[in-house]
Amino acid sequence: MFTIAVQQQQYKTYILSDEAAASQLEVVPERGGIITRWRIQGQEIFYLDTERFANPDLSVRGGNPILFPICGNLPDNVYTHDGKQYTLKQHGFARDLPWQVTDQVTQDKLSLTLVLCSNEQTRAVYPFEFQVIFTYQLQGNTLEIHQQYQNLSSAPLPFSSGFHPYFLTFDKNGLEFEIPSQEYQDQITKEIHPFKGNFDFNQDEIDVAFKQLTSKSASVTDNNRKLKLTLDYGDEYPILVFWTLKGKDFYCLEPWSAPRNSLNTGENLTILDPGGSYTASVRLTANFF
């Protein structure tokens, strides 16, 4: 049985339940359209810093924040378009703005559809007309996120997109990685390093990008939690970013469509013709063993 309930917590929260699988998803449209929680048989899949989440002045650290119209940051948060400089903060504005719920489905499948449209606030930092539509679909231990990006401008629409999922873990040394790449770029030093399947978690911060992906699937096995998470993605996502902080109970494995600063460099940038649309999808599967 599939149900969608609405609770007024600090924010209006949509709770999607696949009762047969004891799988539950919580979505907060007005706080960046974010999935805040995903539970399977009472086990949390995502990490969530509830104190930061409660403060609307802080970015959310947890759940699955949406990255649009950029991934990562720009030098000094600045980019140039048509000779004019604009300021756009890290990961863009989609994760901060309210989204609108446009559809709920509980018959034969379970999904929630949200939309973000350009407005006066977005045009001040990103001079384009757009509509972004996300459908979160939950079935058992699988979460699919279907996306459609539409250019409503009379000019080409440049953007990158991605996700920033925070996965809960209590012992990073018990993590096993299957990432389809033999090297990564340290996003702090810009150096390229060979990837041997593990990381040194004694570092204060790990922030690396895998750009030479050889397949469309990656997984992390948490031996402490007896949990294997698999991330499947399409050609739209040629980059995986791994990020974590020492002493925090999370790691992030993030599909990005383009690297940092692509709005300035053009590297892997998606450019939609006027009136054009673009679709993408990712799938997360959580298997306890």
UniProtKB/TrEMBL annotation:
Entry-linked InterPro entries: Aldose_1/G6P_1-epimerase, Gal_mutarotase_sf_dom, GH-type_carb-bd
GO molecular function, one term: carbohydrate binding
Gene Ontology BP annotations: carbohydrate metabolic process
Entry protein name: Aldose epimerase
